[in-house]
Design brief:
Layout: H1 2-22, E1 27-29, H2 44-78, H3 85-114, E2 116-118, H4 119-139
Parallel strand pairs: 1-2
């Protein structure tokens, strides 16, 4: 249920973000290569193409998050209900990862709402996602 709600929220954010891009505001900023879309003379088509690239990157991150949520759900379901210290520790660790993932989902929603994201921000988010996946695999 939580996954459905999260995906629904992401879809709504994407829809509103698309309208924002049509107004010429949603764009990815590549600060390293001087590839700013805010320069004069950029067409609406250019804004839309840049926005599509940004949304594609964000959707990839959102899909990674959904996969991780499914994996965590399976791991949590496979844990026994026995009150052993190991089980409690595993559940606590998984809960911490889920909290971190939720924080990243909020951050992604904020970026989508803002309508702009740098490549460094996307790279940083992907790196944090990879780190969370490593932590998750250690819990199994």
């Amino acid at each position: 249920m939580k996954q459905i709600l999260t995906i629904t929220i992401l879809i709504l954010v994407l829809i509103s973000s698309y309208g924002y891009a049509q107004m010429g505001h949603g764009m990815m900023r590549d600060t390293g290569q001087g590839h700013m879309m805010q320069q004069s003379g950029v067409t609406a088509k250019g804004h839309m193409m840049e926005h599509a690239l940004m949304m594609d990157n964000m959707m990839g991150v959102a899909q990674d998050m959904a996969v991780m949520m499914r994996q965590m759900s399976v791991i949590m379901g496979n844990m026994t209900d026995a009150e052993s210290k190991t089980t409690r520790d595993r559940k606590r660790n998984m809960s911490n990862i889920m909290r971190d993932l939720s924080s990243e989902m909020n951050r992604l929603s904020w970026m989508m709402d803002k309508g702009t994201v740098t490549e460094d921000e996307m790279r940083s988010m992907r790196n944090r996602m990879n780190e969370m996946q490593k932590q998750m695999m250690e819990i199994k």
